[in-house]
Amino acid sequence: MSGGDKTVFPVILCGGLGTRLWPTSRASMPKPFVTVLGELSTFQMAVRRVIAPGVFQRPTIISSNDVGFILADQLAQIGVEADIILEPVRKDTAAAIAVAACHAARQGSDTVVLVVAADHVIDDPAAFVASCEAALELARAGHIMILGVVPQSPATGYGYIQPGGPINDAGAFRVARFVEKPDAEMAQSFIGQGFLWNSGNFLFRADVMIGELERFQPEVLSVARKSLETATIDLDFIRLDERAFRQAPRTSIDYAVMERTERAGVLPVSFSWTDIGSWDALWDASPRDMAGNALRGNVEVMETRNALVHSDGILTAVVGIDDVVVVAHADAVLVVPRSRSDLVKDLVASMRAGRRPEASEHIRMHHSWGWCQRVDDGSRFLVRRIVVKPGGHLPLQMHHCRAEHLIVVKGTAQVTENENVSLVHENEAIHIPVGSVRRLVNPGRIPLELIGVQVGRDAGEDDRDRVEDRCDG
Fold first, then answer.
1. For position 277, what pLDDT does the model report?
2. Measured between alpha carbons, how far is 392 from 98 in angstroms, rounded to an integer?
3. What is the pLDDT of residue 121?
4. Can you say whether residue 98 is alpha, beta or left, with left for phi > 0 and alpha for psi between -120 and 50 degrees?
5. Residues 262-292: pLDDT tens digits?
6. What average pLDDT does the structure give for the chain?
7. More confident position, 3 or 80
8. pLDDT confidence of 317, banded at 50, 70, 90?
9. 471 pLDDT exceeds 50?
10. For the chain, which domains are there?
11. pTM
């Protein structure tokens, strides 16, 4: 495709850990990939918004190495193909957008890029597409366009944009200034003055963004170019060069470029937009019953109003408490007033400092071959459920002080030990003695499900080692 093509090059950023949505969002499955609204993750919703034929090209996803296989699986679930660029370390949005601009420029320096976040919710995808089309020509003319959302409330969790003079007669404006998250009184004043929410949805020509980065953040641009030029192709992934990318300054695109450039423009949009940054924000975006409660999963409430109650399985009952968040998982339960839900981020930081594995890990851990889930964990044993997707290779690693018994409960396992290959069928078992090394493959067309029991843990093993060994297969 030539750079003169009228379609947009969409880029989805998936960098956030979402600690304010703990315990549902953790490092092992960050918030863009969890399902908290409807049947799709917010990442899948974002992908579906940018696949309108004739408007968008094949999407590009930029995320961290840690979740590459998760996003690949979620793309497969909705039947979408994309370029996947993996960052070896997290460096905030300036480096990611610099990589996106350089990647898009390979097909033409004047390619128009759309950057969106994977954790935003928009209730009217058609209106979003129409807004992108409306901003396209302004971006082609050299403006860095932002979709500015007409505020629905005096929210204090968003940045604001003050529109300046008009760019054209279609309702777009130059950006007079950006304002960081205000207090409630100032937010109300901003609404009265016609300020807009900064949605973080950008459209720009690749060469324009590259030029502004060269002007304001040349080091970020240099690192992005080098890490992309020396990237490696690994299956479906483009892996940025780690040595180069680690040199990138950690800064946001707002600080790096948008608050300094004279090219910033804003197009007011009126569709409903939410940045799912906290449980309170999720409550605001969720369907609610007549009492104002947002309920999901196995929950019961009585004499409770304006609450968010989510359960990942266990029955969760809330009685006589208003304006509260209750989130229940098998290994962690959160209870916090909705108005204080931002404090969850500080709670997670405290738990990490105390080396609580629940701060970062779910009991179900996802891997490139499938997933495993702790069922029971004692001082001398570990029981886990294991699911290997079709074609998945499960490495059964050597343990010096543990034996493992694996029972096939669904499908067929192909097990290799030295030169010997055998098939293990449903209701048959695999024994892995201490010190043994074997390889297991799912040769079938359905997921292979096993129950594994590890026995014989070293009494001197510390907590960190136990966490790493829980799902090392």
1. 86
2. 34
3. 93
4. alpha
5. 999 999 999 999 988 899 999 999 999 999 9
6. 90
7. 80
8. very high
9. no
10. 9-275 (3.90.550.10), 279-352 (no CATH), 364-469 (2.60.120.10)
11. 0.87
Three-state SS string across the chain, please?
Answer: CCCCCCCEEEEEEECCCCHHHCCCCECCECHHHCCCECCECHHHHHHHHCCCCCCECCCEEEEEHHHHHHHHHHHHHCCCCCEEEEECCCCHHHHHHHHHHHHHHCCCCCCEEEEEECCEEECCHHHHHHHHHHHHHHHHCCCEEEEEECCCCCCCCCCEEEEEEECCCCCCEEEEEEECCCCHHHHHHHHHCCCEEEEEEEEEEHHHHHHHHHHHCHHHHHHHHHHHHCCEEECCEEECCHHHHCCCCCCCHHHHHHCCCCCEEEEEECCCEEECCCHHHHHHHCCCCCCCCEEECCEEEECCCCCEEEECCCCEEEECCCCEEEEECCCCEEEEEHHHHHHHHHHHHHHHHCCCHHHCCCCEEEECCEEEEEEEECCCEEEEEEEECCCCEEEECCCCCCEEEEEEEECCEEEEECCEEEEECCCCEEEECCCCCEEEECCCCCCEEEEEEEECCCCCCCHHHHHHHCCCC
Task: Say what the pLDDT of residue 257 is.
Answer: 95
Quote the tokens at residue 38: 């409807």
